Amino acid sequence: MDNPLIYIAVIGAILVLAIFLPRWVRRSTDAAGGRAGQRYATTRLTGILDELGTTLVLHTSETTAREIVDGVVLQQPRKFTRFEGGGYGIRFVEPDDALVRLVDHEDGVRMEVESIREYLGVPNTSEFWADLRSGVSTAAADRGIAVSPGRPVHHRRDEATGTWTQG
Fold it and tell me: Which residue, 19, 49, 137, 158, has fewest beta-carbon neighbours within 10 Å?
């Protein structure tokens, strides 16, 4: 053990490990964190899109349905906006972050989300959409109008604009 070459080789190996090991550990943990974050975002996005795809059928005429929805929208102007042309907006940041339409249905009128703008990588208006559906259901029940869940709609993301539209 009098040979200094062994000590020099051990010291060299320790220096090489000290240089490269932190980079390798950082890359490995970054990759694992990215994969976990992507799984969480995908799970969260699926739930949000399912909520936004839920529709509501009001078993009444379009005029009566519009009166009911207008009443609910006008009660909460910070969350909802009524647009000319018959649409409604749900506000997260802007008044038209989600666009809601009333469309003809064989049993009356269906209320559905037509398009959604995303912020921070996901649509953020699902809770407000649930509030609007709940408010409309309550207002319709108060007037003796039947309400039922409608056929769900599916939204597709436009990569260029970051918006979700039916399709």
Answer: 19
